[in-house]
Sequence to fold (684 residues):
Amino acid sequence: MKRHPSFICFLSAVFFAGMSIVSCGEKPKLPPEPENPGEEPSGPTVTETAVTASPAAFDGEKRASVTYQLLVYSFADSDGDGWGDFNGITERLGYLDDMGVSAIWLSPIHPSSSYHGYSVSDYFTVNDRFGTEADFSNLVSAAHEKGISIYLDYVLNHSGSDNPWFIDAVSSADSRYRDWYLLSDDPENDVRKGMFPMLGTGGYNAGEWRGAPVKGRMHFRLDWRNPSAPTVTVSRTDEDPDVPDEDGTENFFIWYGEGQIARFKETSAGIYELTLDFDSSWGFLIRTSDTTWDGGTKWGAASATAAISFDVPFALDNKTAADIHWSLLYQGVFDRSMPDFNYGDVAEAENTDVFRELVSSAGKWISLGVDGFRLDAVKHIYPRADGPENPLFLSKWYDAVNELYHAAGHDDDIYMVGEVLDGEVSHVAPYYRGLPALFEFAFWYRLEWAINNYTGCYFVKDILGYQDQYKANRADYIEPTKLSNHDEDRAGEVLGRSLVKEKLAACVLLTAGGEPYVYQGEELGYYGSKAGGDEYVRAPMKWTRSGTVPTECLGGKVDANMLNADRSVEAQLADEGSLLNVYRTFMRLRNTYPALADGVMTRHARYNDSNTADKAAAVWYMTARDGSGRMLVTHNFGNAPITLDLAGDDLSHCVGLNGDVSIRNDGGAETLVLGSFATAVFEQ
Ligand code: MG
Fold:
């Protein structure tokens, strides 16, 4: 690899009169006078001229599709209640508009028992923590005025367990919602018998089946006369419930529902009883302490599949101590708060009531001006992630929603992007048969590996290889690229909290093909790991140096050290060298030039995967689809300067720059010197 021995802009060299030095945007400065003008210079004549960028003036037209991933609960809190809200977003639209984003993906806006919103209680209304429906409509209108589209996060795999559909479904075998979910008294056999066409016959996994919610006034009787084999008997009753016994001394408790606990009373030797209004989404446990959580105080079922029946003594176990539930179970792949929908046989999925109702809910948001949807967890809807069912289901969903979109007066097709969380592109690509866009997780995994290993030469080949796989499934595929998102350790964390690496990652994201997503806080250099909880990768925006951030939404799990004054929007807007300004500069560049906005990415003849001698270099072209222009994009993924021989490329007009970049002339050929982690983009 050619390395410049000493990376400074101007080497001590004699400047030849009349020599042509390429300077991007400014005239080269003259080198210092030789100390002894009478002496002949010795050795080759070398000049090195700093490159500066002179992009065309931005005309205000957003040519690129760049989406900002925004967490409604932690982006901007307009009323100071500790939760972000619609009005907060509306107030901050100028920030997003100035940055150059063309769309916003909102985290789920619906009512939900979870802060993140992925367990939806009602698909037809907004979460009142975020404001009113009028506030939401106002946000949509204000965004549209700035040329910003609104995409909603939509969850089709499951609802929340507190969704009235689910509560009704489990309350009675006659419920009209009974078959909207996967409910069974004996799932193992029912699945194997093929009673759930959407699960196939081999998809039984005990860990995905959970006790259905049970509600009602109940009498609990503990028989502890033989402490080595205690039992509990539960009966429905009309008796008055017991008054909570705050001062009792018996150490027998029932734990149920959302962290509720009640004390039993001893009614005869070794017999403890309690009547209460029971309401639990998961069942119950018996505890012999209400203050400690270890030491064998927990008594439950001997196995996860054991079910209790009313009026029948149930043997308690404190080794496995699984949750005690009744025989009705439901499938919830992710969590007991998220019961999975049942779309039946995929061949008929579009005819199910639940499919129709969810399409109808999407139609409501389209009528309020929503421009697209981000679909959550789509590889889980049908259990075979690699089967044909999910792509087929998604194509039906897309067509049905697109029909409503056209009916609402739109001439174009609706935008829809799916989340298939998988770094293996061959697993993601078949989903393009169902949807126009799927997040390219591999982009980030590949990029972070490349930067952390100082190896840029394979990057273009990898990305072009991914595109070939998409193309094979959908000619007009959209390639949504990204760094980290709300389910991953922060890009800043993965890149070792290194500002220069984060700047390079931003430059690559915004100069490569595809349609980039920028995740809230990424532009400010947020770091954080999921190890302490997902909240730490979902931190609130810090708008001002000294201002507070909403923390209630994250249960206080906010890293105050990370959110220091320098990581605020205010500080970074004022600092020309900030990460935020790298994002702003390169997003503007992408919006200025069609070649960068949505151009075709191609390999460079010399610097590519076959050139492992210069492995730190990542070089490619971006060519406008209408042939109106071409850019040479150069990055140094290495932590030392590299010198590139770009004979045949035009280095006379640099339009985008990050880091130290210069052009070296040794009296004949010119070479490009890219400082560590530097980027330069040249118009061709
Ligand atoms: Mg608020």
About this structure: The CA atoms of residues 180 and 353 lie 7 Å apart. The longest strand covers residues 214-223.
